[in-house]
Write a structure and sequence with these properties.
11 strands, alpha+beta, 17 helices, four-stranded mixed β-sheet, Arc Repressor Mutant, subunit A
Length: 415
Amino acid sequence: MEKRREEGEGLCLQVQMFGGFSLSWGGKLVSGSKKTSESQFNYLMQLLLHHRREGVSRDMLERVLFEDRDILDVHHAARSVIYNAKRRLRAAGLPDLNYIEQRKGICYWTAEVPVWEDAAAFEALYEAAGREADPERRLGLYLQACRAYTGEFLPQQAAVFWVAREARRYRNIFCACMEEAVRLLRASQDFPQMRELGNYAMSISPLSDWETVTMEALVAMGQKSGVPAAAQALLEREGDEGYRRLDPSSQLSRLYQAEGLSPFPPHFSLQRLREAGIPTVVWLCPLLPFLNDTAENINGLLDLCQAAGVKGVVCFGMGLTLRQGSRAYFYQQLDRLFPGLKEQYRRCYGQRYSLRSPKSQELLTLFHRRCEKAGILHNNQAIFHYLGTLEDRPQGQLSLFDPDPSGQAPSAPLA
């Protein structure tokens, strides 16, 4: 991917769609600022450059640019946006051309200004890997494709219809690349690289269950004590967005599935760890007021924990915390998925950092009673003391004849 970027540097328009939008020409940034004044220019360029081969209908372009705003002459407004975009591109140093061509009601980006787009490069690697017959070269292409996916497709425009569709499609392609790469790495027993790939996927796509890839690799390398550290690192990376990993209510489950996400990734991970003989501790945080802060949900979570034989459940309260940046994103998603709920949050919590569920005391009582009855640790201090007693396995190459500290025969890697 980097080779393609270097070859095109200064000769083509560089477009980043993954993890956020940016536009560069000759090594200089044309767009990438979050200023409101750039919104229409960005929307226009995102749409045209991503659909540069098939073009964009005038109706779709106007719908994306102006949404449902009451504009007297929407065609004139669209022409003004295109005119101003052309002026801006010329000012950025692009050749003096007609960048946006219109033919029979369809707008096209001119073929005279070549474009390199990270999303298109990612998809090309995925398709090349699918055509490759040699396993080693195929693995190399899948690994390149995984690394080329550097974040969600245009995450700041997640509520726009065409962006949501493409984001889901690219997320599915990334999952397919990961699954094939992991399968090939497992077959070649390249567990160090498998661990690195799992760590990367966890940082890029924390809503999936890629931590199991890292955990499988650690177990296969005899580093079972590294699994709690991997889980802790996952929690730290997710920070305030960890609420999305909670076992959701039936309503949230349907929304997860509609977005192409797995609604219960933690349970899958816990079962695999139990099969490998690895003790687990669950961190229960946060819970979303008015959405999944129900006794049914807490009981369901603890049923799963009990079935998976977890050692303890850490809980600092029933609710969530929101920093300023997290709050804006969280409210944006509430508007998209639960219209009207944002206003209820604002009335109840204002700008508070800590948002405690109205059912907090009731749910905490249920939580402690259930854990006590099931023999699950639920005192945070006792749990952290227990975590401090875990010991590391010796490092280095393992042998079939190495004794296991438990006195049992060495276990096989997770399938």
